[in-house]
Amino acid sequence: MELLEKVQAILEERQQSYFDISDCIWEFAELAYEENRSASIQADYMARQGFHIVQNAADIPTAFIAEWGSGHPIVGICGEYDALPGMSQQADCNEFRPVVEGGAGHACGHHLLGTAAMAAVDALK
To answer: How far apart are the two ends of the chain, measured CA to CA in Å?
Structure first.
């Protein structure tokens, strides 16, 4: 149980950072392969947590790998942070209210999926 408590404590201690990052990615609402700020905010956070960041993963300028440790096993967790075209939406609103008419938005939830994947890796480390 000690390990579980340790992981929970890490997640609770850093939860505001995760909330802030997902909120920023929501606001950025960058389309696939154009998520420069979204990728940067996550990569920067992971670097501050001690991860080695490999930019331009698979020759995709907005893709990165956050590495920590060596040896085996090698664990990979995929995070996404791209938005969808035409889905612009005001935050905290339960009816359709675009910020930018016809603009991109996170109807896909990737602002949460990418940040949750990042938090999982952060706690796993």
So the answer is: 17
